[in-house]
Amino acid sequence: MRGPRQPAGEPAADGGIDLPAVRRRVRLALVLSQILGGLGVSTAVALAAVLAEDIGGSEAVAGLASTSSVIGTALLSLPCAALMARRGRRVGLTSAYAVAAVGGLVVVAGAALRNFPLLLVGMAAFGGSNTAGLQARFAAADLAEPLHRARAISTVVWATTVGAVLGPNIAGPAGRSVAGLGVPETAGPFLWGTVVFLIAGGLLQVLLRPDPLLTARALARKATAGGGPDEGGGQPGANGGRQSDGDGGDRSLRAGLAAVTASAPARVALAAIAGSHTVMVSVMVMTPVDLGGHGAGVELIGLVLSGHIAGMYAFSPVMGWLADRIGRFSVILVGAALLGCATALAGTADGNHAQSAVGLFLLGLGWSAGLVAGSALLTDSVPQRARAAVQGFSDLIMNSAAGVGGALSGLVVAQAGYGWLNLLAAALLIPVTVLTVTVAVRR
């Protein structure tokens, strides 16, 4: 007779597995896909505002392209997480890249037809690439040893650096490649993005085997059935305490929300992730406007933003190492402190471009600390069966909050100035810090 049916792609719980080899294979697949995903996103986004202004006919609508992409990222977070909860990381991540690839084609079609609403729909779908990139950090944590989870997450975040740096430099050739096709050159990078996302999805489909999430569930089920150390208690987290890793039960998004509500550390993690991202996006999107208003040229603005991107990604392994060594809560507080310093420097620069550059670098560094440590703490703090749902919910909150912050930042600057924007962004850090300290002390 046949035994109990296994979910598609999931290894048998009693099957042998070379866990170190699987971890290396998963890390390779995720790193390669992150490099490609970062390349596709940054190549296209470099000219997104220019394309939107051209098709929309006004500078006032130029920012709607990026806003649509952020909204798309948020809206796709929950269905992507639900798909992963049922079918695993491989299906969820490849599906997100497939949606992004279709979005790239829709953007090109909107540009060719000079149809602005169609362009925005394509940009929203294009946001699926960011959904895949963000969810990949959690895939890196699925099979990581609990005391090394933050480093595993940070490795995948760091890989984005390569594509993010290379992308803007090939935007020009990508634009020229569509000459004669009847579409604006500024749409060329989106066509390239479509190809790159298809390659990234194909790599994940081939290399992300066995599926890390399904494998982690099978191992947790085996440990529970065997009465091992995970039974009824889970694995030790980096900050003490234990979390359940047992499988079974409801994996719905409602169960994910319930898991966050039931766990104080998970609430801290969610606040840190959403708060860090909102502060970073709100300040970053208006910094080029402030620099330009104080006489900075395109080259200088690009240099400041490059330093910001380096702060976001290049030092993430350091944040991961610190989160594993001194604890998640400590690094979340370090991130809040860095973001506070960043807003103080940027908000009082008043034309001092060197001070603005330092502020934007620290803004990226603080974001990295909050994202890496918060993501590790979130994974530590909820049961295995609810993790995919919780992680998708966190990305929905993170991107929704940042979308609102980015949309309001322009109004704040127009009415009160860039300094007030930084002050209000810094104020968002107060509840995050108070919640973190309160929960850390109680533990």
TrEMBL record:
Q: Which PROSITE patterns match?
A: MFS
Q: Which InterPro entries match?
A: MFS (IPR011701), MFS_dom (IPR020846), MFS_trans_sf (IPR036259)
Membrane topology of this protein: Multi-pass membrane protein
Q: Name one GO cellular component term.
A: plasma membrane
Any coiled-coil regions, as ranges = none
Cellular localisation: Cell membrane
S-adenosyl-L-methionine recorded as keyword? no
Lineage, top-rank taxon, reads Bacteria
Give the Major facilitator superfamily (MFS) profile domain ranges. Answer: 26-443
Amino acid composition bias (Gly residues), ranges on this chain: 225-240
The molecule here is called MFS transporter
